[in-house]
Design goal:
The N and C termini lie far apart (about 55 Å). It is built from 13 helices and 25 strands. It has a ten-stranded mixed sheet with strand order 1-2-4-3-5-6-9-10-13-14, with helices on both faces. Strands 15, 16, 17, 19, 22, 24 and 25 form a seven-stranded antiparallel sheet that branches. It is globular. Strand 9, helix 11 (about 265-275) and strand 10 form a beta-alpha-beta unit. By secondary structure, it is an alpha+beta fold. It has helices at about 50-55, 60-65, 90-105, 120-125, 160-185, 190-200, 200-205, 225-230, 235-240, 245-250, 265-275, 315-330, 425-430, and strands at about 5-15, 20-30, 35-40, 65-70, 110-115, 135-140, 155, 155-160, 255-260, 285-295, 305, 310, 340-345, 350, 360-370, 380-385, 395-400, 435-440, 445-460, 465-475, 480-490, 500-510, 515-520, 550-555, 560-570.
């Protein structure tokens, strides 16, 4: 039931400098007065309950003294723009114009803050490039400020699962609807049928080759093919980069990230860019990292994975409102420390003064074996002692026709609530194409908090390939709980092993007594990442172009392959 204390004005027009008209819904107190404004610029439909209420409930915000404005992005839902929607394009200038429009309304005090999660965080970063005078703070959730490493690509690898499923499930339906309304159903009947087929059977869509052959997106979502055509570092991405804007901003930013969020690296990179610049905003950043996935109810209460529940209740909505009160209405603020993070294992929130933690010590755990580390039933070990001179190497066959399946972690795939987070990896570790290195049961707790990476020495029969790595917490009952993972695309020309550094992003976890630290090494995680074909350019036009390769991980005194963990010293009892 609509509360009489909240006045809702629907589809108000916002005219942009180029003549385009966007549509906004305004939620406000009908009583006279000028109030600060909270703006969400969304590609997910301002009439959708989850889109509007998923981060901040407008009713609570109005009760707290704010006006809430939710705007459909250009080319989406009620806003103008007949050209196919392109994520990121023009979002900054459009969002900046909406900020100035909101600040000029008779119900506004001239101060605006932006909020929103996932793609709704992108316009916040992009708006900084245009420096709207009325924008006083932003609160980006679960999002990345750069796109060629942390959104579309990671480690040089295309994030197939997220990019394709997001385009199919979240973007394409409205694009088909708009196209039908514009041109008639007959002209787009085939596109609608292909989209329906892909949504019913996403596995077939993921396996289709070449990667840019997606009939369900043809003529509906041109961004997908454009992204594939522009590798990391391409000028295409540089034109969208917000790095310079982040380095030069003076705004306070509340960064909200999740250990199992698909954009964790992008969240952390945005925070780091502002801190590293050392400008006026450097000390006005606040970072919160919880045990959250892209899909978890992080902002509503306890966080659930399909296999584990974290007691991580936090009134994120109230915290955000206090943050906006501080920066838009001169209120007291939430009193946040520079960093607040959730430490898994002991399952508790902890306040810190910096990220990464200054007291964490990068510590090597070396890969060891007798030459048969294949699967969790092999002889792979993870030890603080480095390998000897003649230690055998480990070999596995990477066949992209039969890739290692993605199970949990920081993924956004079909049934995202059931295939993300700290899921049990034992079924994955039963495969012979997964090398498994496990430490001895711990006698004391070991805390790992901060960036994680693996240094691996690879020899391959392919001219180029991929390497993956996972950090796993093995419980006394055998459960193998995924903490973080990464991938790296590698050129392997030459006879000697190639040194490969795989970024596993970051985590915070206490390995409790009786638990064991484990590293998995392989060459695929599908469909989270696209399959490397083991050819020079990594692509294939069909399954016939996918070639098996023999991968050898070298670990001896000259090639000390290791997992590098940020160990936090345990305080005296």
């Amino acid at each position: 039931m609509t509360r009489p204390s909240v006045l809702r004005e629907r589809d108000l027009p916002i005219s942009l400098p180029d003549g385009m008209v966007l549509r906004a819904d305004v939620h406000r107190d009908p009583a006279p007065g000028r109030r600060p404004v909270l703006l969400q610029f969304t590609a997910y439909d301002k009439a959708n309950w989850a889109s509007v209420n998923g981060v901040i409930n407008p009713e609570r915000a109005v009760d707290h003294g704010f006006v809430v404005v939710v705007v459909d992005a250009r080319g989406r839902f009620r806003s103008g723009g007949d050209e196919p929607f392109r994520p990121f394009a023009r979002s900054g200038e459009d969002a900046a114009a909406c900020v100035e429009w909101a600040a000029a309304q008779p119900w506004s005090n001239g101060r605006v803050g932006m909020y929103g999660a996932s793609n709704n965080g992108v316009p916040q970063w992009q708006a900084l490039r245009h420096r709207p005078a009325a924008l006083r703070t932003i609160v980006p959730h679960f999002t990345a400020s750069e796109f060629d490493d942390g959104w579309v690509w990671r480690g040089g690898v295309f994030q197939l699962g997220f990019n394709l499923w997001w385009s199919l499930a979240n973007l394409a339906p409205d694009q088909v609807r708009r196209a039908v309304a514009r041109d008639g159903a007959d002209r787009h009947r085939q596109a609608a049928a292909e989209l329906s087929r892909a949504l019913r059977d996403p596995d077939t869509a993921f396996r289709r080759l070449p990667l840019d052959d997606v009939p369900a997106l043809e003529g509906i979502a041109p961004h997908y093919r454009e992204w594939l055509a522009h590798p990391p570092g391409d000028p295409y991405w540089q034109e969208l980069s917000a790095r310079a804007a982040l380095a030069g901003t003076e705004l306070p930013v509340l960064h909200v990230a999740g250990w199992y969020n698909v954009h964790l690296d992008g969240n952390l990179a945005g925070h780091a860019a502002i801190k590293a610049a050392g400008g006026p905003a450097a000390e006005r950043q606040r970072l919160i990292i919880g045990p959250w996935t892209q899909w978890s109810p992080a902002l509503f209460g306890d966080t659930c994975g399909p296999e584990r529940r974290f007691p991580s209740t936090m009134d994120m909505e109230g915290l955000q409102l206090a943050w906006f009160d501080q920066h838009l209405a001169d209120g007291a603020g939430p009193g946040l420390p520079p960093v607040r993070l959730f430490v898994m294992g002991v399952d508790e929130w902890r306040d810190e003064q910096e990220w990464p933690l200054a007291r964490a010590r990068p510590t090597e755990w070396f890969l060891r074996s007798a030459g048969a580390a294949n699967s969790r039933h092999g002889d792979g070990r993870l030890t603080p002692e480095p390998p000897g001179e003649a230690e055998p190497h480990d070999t596995f066959l990477y066949d992209p026709r039969h890739p290692v399946p993605t199970r949990g972690g920081a993924a956004y795939l079909p049934n995202p609530a059931g295939n993300s987070g700290p899921m049990d990896q034992r079924a994955i570790e039963d495969r012979a194409d997964v090398l498994v290195y496990t430490g001895e049961p711990l006698s004391e707790p070991v805390e790992v908090t901060g960036p994680v990476h693996a240094v691996l020495y690879l020899r391959s029969t392919a001219p180029a390939t991929d390497l993956t790595a996972k950090l796993v917490d093995v419980h006394p009952d055998g459960r193998a709980e995924l903490l973080c993972d990464g991938i790296r695309r590698v050129t392997t020309a030459g006879d000697g092993p190639v040194r490969v550094e795989v970024d596993l992003i970051a985590t915070s976890n206490v390995f409790l007594p009786g638990h064991r630290i484990r590293l998995e090494v392989s060459s695929s995680s599908f469909p989270k990442y696209d399959r490397h074909s083991n050819t020079e350019d990594g692509t294939a036009s069909s399954e016939a172009g996918l070639r098996p390769a023999v991968q050898t991980i070298v670990h001896d005194d000259r090639h000390p392959s290791a997992l590098v963990l940020p160990i936090v010293p345990t305080p005296p009892r």
